[in-house]
Structure formats: structure tokens, C-alpha cells
Specification:
It is built from 21 helices and 24 strands. With 718 residues, the chain is of the alpha+beta class. The chain folds into three domains: 306 residues, Endonuclease/exonuclease/phosphatase (Deoxyribonuclease I, Chain A, 4-Layer Sandwich); 113 residues, Immunoglobulins (Immunoglobulin-like); 195 residues, Orthogonal Bundle (Phosphatidylinositol 3-kinase, Chain A), CATH 1.10.555. One of its GO terms (cellular component) is phagocytic vesicle membrane.
Length: 718
């Protein structure tokens, strides 16, 4: 939250953050002058035009840099990273550093680990002698830190930060972190993000939209600043046609003839299509792609996958306030840094900030009010919407669908719009619908393009899955103009229900016609097309059985647990579970359409999405008190309702067979499943040890029922 700053607490022009002090907004310091920015758009517009009469404009140099470090620790040599920050000419006033993949370990998604953060912070600080840290924020492996020159006199303050996790189970392996502050009297929002990888173009766009929804503790959005600077591993690749194969791409990049490849850059294309970053600017790219290299070299990826080069690492900005100006210089990659499969990218941004002379502005406020009144009498705000109805049609679980809404200013002056909640509602839209951006200012004769996204996540699916809901969704959005009227947009969608986000109890308890029973349940005591190694003699939900037995059939030891959990392939797996036969998953894995880590990830997603906990809520606390005794834990399980016990035993059998093949990841796997069984927040540390202990005791007991040489020796280690 924003905090009040005592002038005596300022150090090097940058105030210390005082804990426990009252909150304030950007504009509290102006309230005593009779003028509050943001309260009256027309007065704001007049004073914006008159800024030269009461503002001094100061050029501030920001060195902005981004680096995907691929889970590596910084090099031991203190000078190894110096070329990354070394520059000729005047020193920048601020240095903004964004890291991605600071820690790749799966366990990092389960428990917070600050070791890598301290290592990198120390290494960066050693390269920035003469600078002090202003603020930093971390989300798993995504890290953002701002430094300021110690001998600088530029004030910064009103600092605030937040983060948005995206990606696998929202563990934060993908997402964004943000720091906002005022430099002089210009508000700047910095965002460092790591978007979805590989071929997941739409998932990248979705990540952008989700991160764009980030708000701060005072409920202000990223768009309520003079300037947004967005950096990170955005992961956009080259969408080259078959006539430009990988080898030709590599040749062009190696010989410096890469400019023509930018025509196929996905980020530039998505900006043109207005799917993502369409109002952001970027310096001209004059450097080779920054991904993917063999670690320790400047050679393109020689691994089995032989990834094509791409400009994944980018720095962009968006000017919100007309009075703010940005000029970029030295947009470049640092090729001599070879510790990662990415290269660092940096740019020096010259930002024109304003320094308000409060007394001069105070003397102009009355005149500005009169001028604003004169304009209001002749200039009523007026907009035209491209649609008053938007029908998204059929939508599916965790598959975003996006449509564009254009707001055109057809009035005679500037217009400020904002989506507002309908009477009786707390939010501007239901949870299944998001608007990016939710507010903005449109100048006369201009238009802004908004992205409306429908996304059904597990909590929304739980609501839709309740009895009596037919899956049809609708809402009315209210677009309010400052000093004007309201406009309305009706939104419709139809959710196609899935095994994801459903109740596993419903699969087991819903009667089905005799010829359709196999669509809900599978009898593990009967022969099947896939060999089942479980001794459970009753039935489990078919979607769960399909995915577990697919993993078994492909060999549990072949799951690459150390690969970053991907999103790619999820839709195909979801469709196979919802509509396909048990053999369809085998065909997909056999053909290489999806790999086993994707199937394994889908299993975790399926369990996490169940609306009912596998360990009943009314039994959870009792179970956690019995973790010292295998027999007591076993007795707890026997008290579960039959459906819960069947599914729990089935998954424990799966773990008994899975764990011996993945000794280096056993602790992480156990914690994942323990959190899922109890349906506990993976980010919560409460009872984490007890949850895992209960599962360990059940594994001991279950392995005694189904002994094998590998599992027996493995469980002795608990």
C-alpha cells in the first residue's frame, strides 16, 4: 500500500517505506490546494495543456533490462556480469532489472525459496556500485528490482507493488510482478512478466490480459499511471512459413541478415491484430534473437529440440499521459553473457518527467475551472461502441475466448470512460468475464480497442456445475462517461461442461443407462484396453482412470519431472478425457502430439479442479492429528465415504508406483498430492508438514498391501 513519507526519512532523494503508517494516494499532496487530479477530466485537460505554465520538465534516464537466467546462479566471478551494466556516457538515474526463471525447481512452486533471490540481488548490486535498492518484488522465479543513484537528487516515492500468477495451477511459474512509483511528479508502473512458452500463442495473449488486470491495494489499475514500462521474457516466437526452415533462420541470424525475419515476429503481429500490447511502443530491434543458445556459448540450440531463434526478451512502454515523453537509445542484447540459454536485453529510456510548482498551479486553478466550465457547456462527451451485444458462443474449461470492443470518441472534446458495476453488484463484470483495459481517456476523433475475455476456471466451473444451471452465461456491462451518460454492452456465452471443474462424486453417484455406464466409471477389476496395475476392485471416475493408466502404459519412469510444466496440449487432453475413448490418450502420446509431463500436469489439474476434496473436509483435521501412526492413518481412510476412499486408494497406488522412478523429485511430488488431496492452498504453509506426513503414512500402509521390491525399499526412506 502507499505510505506517508516523512521528509526526514528520505535517503538519496528516495524515501524509506515506513511500515504501519496511513495509506495515501498519488494525489493527497495536492488536496490542500483545492485541486485533486483525476476528479474532473475537463479541469485535468485544461491544466494538462497549461503544464508549461506551472511545471518544470526534467529528463530522467532509466536503464531497463530483462534477463531469463534459466535457473542458473550468478557466476562466481564478481566481474562476469559487469558487461551487462557497463555503459559509456552519463550514468542512468535509475536501473530497473527484471529476471525470469530465477529458480526452475518444481519445489519452488510449492514452497518459497529466497536463496536464488539473495544470490542474484548480491551479484547485481556488486555491479551497481553507487546505487541503492529502492524496492523489489518476487513471484517464484520472476523478480523485479529498482535501483537509484546514491548521488542523485531526483525524488521518488509513493511506492507500491503487486503480482499476478498465471500458468500451471497458478503456482507462479508464469505471471507478472509490478512496482509503481512517482519519479518527480510523474507516475510510472514497471511490469516484469514471463509469459507462456512454446507454441502457446493464445496462452501468451491470455497471460498478457490477466497481468493487465493487476491492481494495487487502493484498487487502482496499471493504466492509472502516466507511463507503463513492460519488460520480460514475453516468449513470442517466429511464425515463419515452411519455406523458411529452421536452418535458414539460423543462417540469417548468424550472418546478421535477420531484419526480414521480424515480419514473422509474433509480438509485432499480435500488436497489429490488436490481440496483445497493441498500444505499446518498442525501440527498433537491431540485435540478433536472444533465444535459444547452448548454455555457455553463443551457439544456437543444439539439443534434440533444436529450437528456432526468437526475440523472446523485450522492453516496451505505453504512454498514458500526454505530457509524458519517452525516447529510447541503445536497445541491445548483451551477447557476451553466456550463462543462460537467453541473452540479457537492455535499453536506456530518456523519460521526460514533470516537476509541479504547486504554488503556480494553485494560482491557475480558478482560471482552469472557468475554462473547463466554458468547454463543458459546449462539449458534451459522446462515444460510439462497435457492439452493444457480444455473443461468445460455446466456451470450454480453461480455454479463453476473446472479442474486441472499440470505443470511439465522436464528441468535440476528450472523454474519459470507465466500466462500473451495475446496481447491486460489487464488480464491473462477473468472474468469467474480464475487460482490458477497464478505463481510459480517448481524445477527440480517436478510438481505443478493448479486449473482452471469457475464461472458465475451476471456481467458475464449480458454480456453473451446480444443479439447475444449464451453462448459459450472460451479463450487462456498463460503460460510464465522466460528465456524460452510460452505455451498455450485453455479453453472452454458453459453457460446455467438462470433467474438469466437476464433482468426482457426481461421476460415481449419477445413474447412467446400462449401455452408457462406461462413460462415467471404469471397473478396475475387469480387463480393459489399458493394463491396470491397481488391485482396487471397484470403480473410479473414467476421466481419472484414463489419464492415470495412460501414464502407466507409457512408463512412469519416462515422465520428465524436471521440465517446466507446460500448458501446451491441455486442450487436446481435456477433449480426449471429455469425449474420447481410453485409447485416444495413448495415440496422442505415442504420436508425440503431447508428452508425458503434459499428461502428468493434466492429472494434477484434474484433481485440483474437482469441486469436492478427495479427503472429506469434515475428516481433514482428524487426519492431520494422526500423522505419527500408519495404523491410525489407515483407520482414518477407512472412515471416508466409500467414493472418497476408492479414489484416494487408487491415487495412493499410483504414487506407490510413481515415486521410486523419481527420487530427486519425491518430496515435491508428495507435497503436490498432499495439497491436492486436502484441497489446500499450495501457497499456504499451515499444516503443510502434517498433510505430507499423512500421505507418507498412507503410502507405507498401502505398499504393505501391494509390496514390490522397488516400493518397499523406497518407503524405508520415510
Amino acid at each position: 500500500m502507499f505510505v506517508l513519507i516523512k521528509s526526514s526519512e528520505a535517503v538519496n532523494g528516495c524515501p524509506r517505506v515506513l511500515k504501519g503508517t496511513p495509506a495515501m494516494t498519488f494525489y493527497d499532496s495536492s488536496a490542500t490546494n483545492g485541486y485533486i487530479p483525476g476528479k474532473d477530466l475537463h479541469v485535468d485537460s485544461v491544466l494538462s495543456e497549461w503544464e508549461p505554465r506551472f511545471c518544470d520538465f526534467i529528463d530522467v534516464r532509466l536503464l531497463v533490462t530483462t534477463f531469463n537466467v534459466n535457473g542458473k546462479s550468478p557466476p562466481p566471478s564478481p566481474g562476469a556480469l559487469q558487461p551487462w551494466f557497463a555503459r559509456n556516457g552519463n550514468k542512468p538515474d535509475f536501473v530497473v532489472v527484471g529476471l525470469q526463471e530465477m529458480d526452475l525447481a518444481i519445489g519452488t512452486y510449492v514452497k518459497d525459496n529466497n536463496i536464488k533471490q539473495f544470490e542474484w540481488l548480491s551479484a547485481i548490486s556488486s555491479c551497481l556500485r553507487g546505487y541503492s535498492e529502492v524496492h523489489s518484488i518476487k513471484l517464484v522465479g520472476i523478480f523485479l528490482v529498482v535501483y537509484q543513484r546514491i548521488d542523485g537528487a531526483i525524488p521518488c516515492g509513493e511506492i507500491m507493488s503487486n503480482h499476478v500468477p498465471t500458468g500451471f495451477l497458478k503456482f507462479g511459474n508464469k505471471g507478472g510482478v509490478s512496482i509503481r512509483m512517482k519519479i518527480n511528479d510523474t507516475s510510472i508502473c514497471f511490469i516484469n512478466s514471463h509469459l507462456a512458452a512454446g507454441n502457446e500463442l493464445e496462452r501468451r495473449n491470455q497471460d498478457y490480459r490477466e497481468i493487465s488486470q493487476l491492481t494495487f491495494a487502493d484498487n487502482s489499475s496499471i493504466y492509472e499511471h502516466d507511463l507503463i514500462i513492460w519488460l520480460g521474457d514475453l516468449n513470442y516466437r517466429l511464425a515463419t512459413p515452411p519455406s523458411i526452415p529452421n536452418e535458414l533462420i539460423r543462417l540469417k541470424c548468424s550472418t546478421g541478415d535477420f531484419k526480414c525475419l521480424l515480419d514473422y515476429d509474433q509480438l509485432l503481429q499480435q500488436q497489429i491484430y490488436r490481440n496483445a500490447f497493441h498500444d505499446f511502443q518498442e525501440p527498433k530491434i537491431n540485435f540478433k534473437p536472444t533465444y535459444k543458445y547452448d548454455t555457455g556459448t553463443n551457439n544456437w540450440d543444439s539439443s534434440e529440440k533444436r529450437r528456432a531463434p526468437a526475440w523472446c526478451d523485450r522492453i516496451l512502454w505505453r504512454v498514458i499521459s500526454e505530457g509524458t515523453n519517452v525516447v529510447a537509445s541503445d536497445y541491445e542484447s548483451i551477447e557476451c553473457i553466456t550463462l543462460s540459454d537467453h541473452k540479457p536485453v537492455r535499453s536506456l529510456l530518456h523519460v521526460t518527467t514533470k516537476k509541479i510548482d504547486v504554488e503556480k498551479r494553485r494560482r491557475l486553478v480558478d482560471e482552469a475551472n472557468r475554462e473547463a466550465d466554458r468547454r463543458i457547456n459546449s462539449l458534451r462527451p459522446k462515444i460510439r461502441l462497435s457492439h452493444t451485444q457480444l455473443d461468445f458462443g460455446d466456451v470450454w474449461y480453461m480455454e479463453p475466448k476473446v472479442k474486441t470492443l472499440t470505443v470511439e470518441n465522436v464528441g468535440a472534446g476528450p472523454v474519459h470512460f470507465k466500466f462500473v458495476a451495475r446496481p447491486g453488484n460489487d464488480d464491473i463484470s462477473p468472474d468469467w468475464l474480464s475487460v482490458t483495459p477497464p478505463s481510459g481517456t480517448v481524445m477527440k476523433g480517436c478510438a481505443v480497442h478493448l479486449s473482452l475475455q471469457v475464461l472458465i476456471d475451476q471456481r467458475i466451473a464449480w458454480e456453473i456445475g451446480k444443479p439447475g444451471h444449464d451453462g448459459r452465461l450472460s451479463d450487462i456491462l456498463v460503460v460510464r462517461l465522466r460528465d456524460g451518460g452510460d452505455s451498455f454492452v450485453e455479453v453472452f456465452a454458453n459453457y460446455k461442461k467438462s470433467c474438469f471443474g466437476a464433482s468426482f462424486l457426481a461421476f460415481m453417484n449419477t445413474p447412467a443407462p446400462e449401455d452408457k455406464k462406461e462413460e462415467l466409471l471404469i471397473d478396475l477389476g475387469e480387463p480393459s484396453g489399458l493394463e491396470s496395475v491397481s488391485t482396487t476392485s471397484t470403480k473410479v471416475p473414467l476421466p481419472l482412470w484414463k489419464i492415470v493408466e495412460c501414464l502407466r502404459a507409457n512408463g512412469l519412469e519416462n515422465i520428465q519431472m524436471n521440465d517446466p510444466p507446460p500448458d501446451s496440449g491441455f486442450v487436446a487432453i481435456r477433449n480426449a478425457l471429455d469425449r474420447g475413448s481410453p485409447e485416444q490418450l495413448l495415440l496422442m502420446t505415442g504420436s508425440g502430439e503431447v508428452d508425458l509431463i503434459t499428461v502428468y500436469t493434466a492429472l494434477l489439474r484434474l484433481i485440483d479442479s474437482f469441486s469436492d476434496p478427495i479427503i472429506p473436509r469434515d475428516a481433514a483435521n482428524y487426519c492431520l492429528r494422526q500423522v505419527e501412526s500408519p495404523s491410525y492413518c489407515s483407520a482414518c481412510v477407512q472412515r471416508f465415504p466409500e467414493e472418497n476412499r476408492i479414489v484416494f486408494d487408487y491415487l495412493i497406488d499410483f504414487l506407490v508406483d510413481l515415486l521410486p522412478s523419481h527420487r530427486s523429485s519425491q518430496g515435491d511430488i508428495l507435497q503436490h498430492f498432499a495439497d491436492l488431496f486436502f484441497k489446500a492452498d499450495s501457497a499456504s504453509s499451515a499444516n503443510r508438514r502434517e498433510r505430507r506426513g499423512f500421505v507418507e503414512q498412507c503410502l507405507r500402509t498401502r505398499s504393505g498391501i501391494r509390496p514390490t521390491p522397488s516400493t518397499s525399499s523406497f518407503l524405508m526412506s520415510f
